[in-house]
Amino acid sequence: MIEKLSVEIADLRARLNMNSRNSSKPPSSDGYAKPTPKSRRQRSGKKPGKQPGDPGHHLAQRSDPDMTQTHTPTTCGGCGEDLSDTEVSGVIVRQVFDLPPVALFCTEHRAEQKRCSCGAKTTGPFPREATAPACYGPALRAYVCYLVTRQHLPIARVAELLRDTYGASISTGTIISMVQPGFRRM
Length: 186
What we know:
Elements: H1 2-16, E1 113-115, E2 121-123, H2 138-150, H3 155-166, H4 172-185
Antiparallel strand pairs: 1-2
Helix pairs in contact: 2-4
């Protein structure tokens, strides 16, 4: 009888020690007594952050900013006195790097017409990208092809992106016609 009970106790202890990591039990059966997660990462012995001797990288100021704005105080922050006639005692410089305003750039091409003494009228040649009275240029076409073929954006999302960023209402059919010549060249 003692042997039988000893075997049963050993079996019950083995069941108690089972969890989702050492058996086929689901993780939800662990209850609140979940084992602590063990990371496989090993400590490098280095402190977090930039290491001594590393030059580091940061956003540095430029010597030639695109635009400069001067902010002049009009009144004293201490007593409220007028500072309009006071000379500048120092300047603190901060630079903000941001995206420029984005808009479609429109170039109007004018082909002059001249009449020769023989009576023939000759028109100046338009550049290759000016195929219609109003059309999209090669840079926009290349950008659309990049978005569709390299970034794998859906056609409708490319149309949405162009509308949101450039204010250009380009139809999905026009986008498809911009991408098709590239497919034909492959």
